[in-house]
Amino acid sequence: MKKNSWLIPVSILVFVLGTLIFLSPLFIPKDVNWPIKQKLKLGLDLKGGTQIVLTVNTDQLSETDKANAVDNNIRIIRNRIDQYGIAEPTIQKIGEKDILVQLPGVKDPIAAENLVRQSAVLEFKLVAPNEESEKYLNQVDALVQENLQRFPTLTKLDAADKALDKTAKADSAKAAADSTRTPGEGIFKSLITTSEQDYAVRSGDLTVMRQLLQDTLFVNLIPKGFNILLESSDEATRGANEPVKLYVLKSAVEVKGSDVDGASWEIGSSNNPNPQMANKPYISLTFTREGARKFANCTGDNINERLAIVVDNAVYSAPVIKDRIPDGKATISGQFTNEQAKSLAILLNNESLTAPIEPKSSNQVSATLGSDSIKSGLRAGLIGLIAVVLFMLLYYKVAGLVADFVLIFNVGFILAALTAFGGTLTMPGIAGMILTIGMAVDANVLIFERIREELDAGKTPHTATDAGFKRAAVTIWDSNLTTIIAAIVLYQFGTGPVRGFALTLSIGIIGSMFCAIVFVRYIMERTMLGNTKKMSI
After folding, report:
1. How far apart are the C-alpha atoms of 251 and 231, rounded to whole Å?
2. Do 80 and 347 meet the contact criterion of CB atoms below 8 Å apart?
3. For residues 426 and 442, what is the distance between their CA atoms, to the nearest angstrom?
């Protein structure tokens, strides 16, 4: 090694500064404006999160499509989750039809399940005029009333209404207040209220209406040409007692999701005239050339009509068309949270699932379990580190102290590298780190023992050090190279925890080789070789 070479000190400086910079977010308070924002991510076993097991329904597919359905769904789910920004998810096939999804840090199993299950079928449909809507709802009401016995839920509700009317019969005012039905109305129309030319369903009747709209018998019974859909609603954002809007839409699809070129979620400016977009998240859509033409024709031919934006049979918004929109852009606004808007944009940007998937199990991994795992792993790592440090210090004296000093940077380098590349620390990763500690000093032991042999042979400290590093380097390269090859194979063919172990081990080996061959030697030459007659090793 040339003492005057600028490459060695510069590489060490980059190594040390890079380690400190990417570890700094662990120690910098959140309220401090620090350029490095990314922190070390913890895996499901340390941080907690959500685990979902899904089953792919391939009953309606051909034999050829069945073979690829699960793999295609895994690819689509992985694309969605990667765009969502979840760190190191585990997505793997179990058996023939099941898919295991592990999402570290995700505390809402329902939101996670929706992200991987939904197809996000986007459609633009015209809202039927009030006269047509009222006529259609009356037709549906009459048909349901004629076939009431075929709908057990409505039969019970109708019986309850009649009992209420009978009880309140003595007091006509009370009967008028309590009755849910106006003269001539059936049980279906009694579930719907009218306010400012809009239809709505009371919160108490919402479950019944949703069950009815999803009932195959009801769907096949009602006249074709129109759709009855509810608005997309979230109990947490709209309030539990607020009614949910109901829409009567024309069945014809004006613009489809396949006509959309891209979707992104944004936050509206505070001065936006639309109250659903001002300081609130919304979805921005860009159409393909063909989609832009369809959208322009639709808006131009239906000025002053309402155009509903429907995703997965739920109406997100139904604005009035004020003018022809030729620029091929549209927005979806509603009662979104940031996470809901982000998830919807991801779903709209990705292809639909090859085959429908059904949840087999969904559970949340306890954060307490993660905390216990972290403590146990840190305790094991700390004990191992202290034992190695003491051994090196007592057995190799000053040279051991130098190796211990560099070992601290080696451990820091592993954590910094995981942070820099967006990796995730897991329990197997901690095991790989502990193994790396032993392998790191193993290289130093080979070098130091070789230096001792050279000193015993009567060579000077300078000559012995030079010979020790040169002759031990070959063995170090061989042993670490074979370990890296094994780690690469584990990472390539392993899944989940195995890949975490392999990644941490690979980073640790690279760091330990640099530390042992370059870093330790540089410090020894600058501090220990001033006395050419005696060396503390």
Report:
1. 16
2. yes
3. 24
3-state secondary structure 282-326: EEEEEECHHHHHHHHHHHHHCCCCEEEEEECCEEEECCECCCCCC
In this structure, are residues 388 and 437 in contact, taking their beta carbons and an 8 Å threshold? yes
Under 8 Å between Cβ of 285 and 332: yes
SS (H, E, C) 354-380: CCCEEEEEEEEECHHHHHHHHHHHHHH
Q: How far apart are the first and last CA of the chain?
A: 20
Of the listed ranges 33-42, 169-178, 287-296, 406-415, the least confidently predicted one is 169-178
Domains of the chain: 7-41+366-527 (1.20.1640.10), 49-118+361-365 (3.30.70.3400), 122-338 (no CATH)
Residues 6+ apart with CB under 8 A from 260: 122, 285, 286, 287, 288, 291, 348
Residue 103, amino acid: L
| Closest alpha carbon to 51 in 140, 116, 4 | 116
- Are 432 and 415 a contacting pair, CB within 8 Å? no
The tokens for 332 are 């979806």
CA distance 485 to 498: 15
pLDDT for residue 181 is more than 80:
no
Residue 385 in tokens: 């580190």
Q: Which two tokens stand for residue 521?
A: 């030697």
Phi/psi for 242 (5° steps) reads -80, 140
Pairing of β 424-425 and β 41-42? parallel
What is the C-alpha to C-alpha distance for residues 438 and 381, in angstroms, rounded to an integer? 11
- C-alpha distances (whole Å) from 426 to each of 87, 125, 487 are 11, 48, 16
In this structure, are residues 112 and 77 in contact, taking their beta carbons and an 8 Å threshold? no
6-10 contacts at long range (C-beta below 8 A, 24 or more positions apart): 8/518, 8/522, 9/522
Find which of 151-155, 333-337, 449-453 is predicted with most confidence, using mean pLDDT. Answer: 449-453
Q: What is the chain's length? A: 537
Q: What is the pLDDT of residues 76-118, one digit of tens each?
A: 787 777 766 665 677 888 888 888 888 877 777 677 777 777 6
How many angstroms separate the CA atoms of 69 and 93, rounded?
Answer: 11
DSSP, collapsed to helix, strand or coil, labels residue 90 as: strand
pLDDT tens-digit series, residues 314-373: 888 888 888 888 888 888 776 667 777 777 777 677 556 667 777 787 777 665 555 666
Q: Is 330 exposed, middle or buried (0-12, 13-18, 19+ CB in 10 A)?
A: buried
Q: Is the dihedral of CA 275, 281, 286, 287 positive or negative?
A: negative
CB-count burial class (<10 Å; 0-12, 13-18, 19+) for 474: exposed
One-letter identity of residue 354: T
**Residue 174: predicted pLDDT:** 44
CA distance 448 to 468: 7
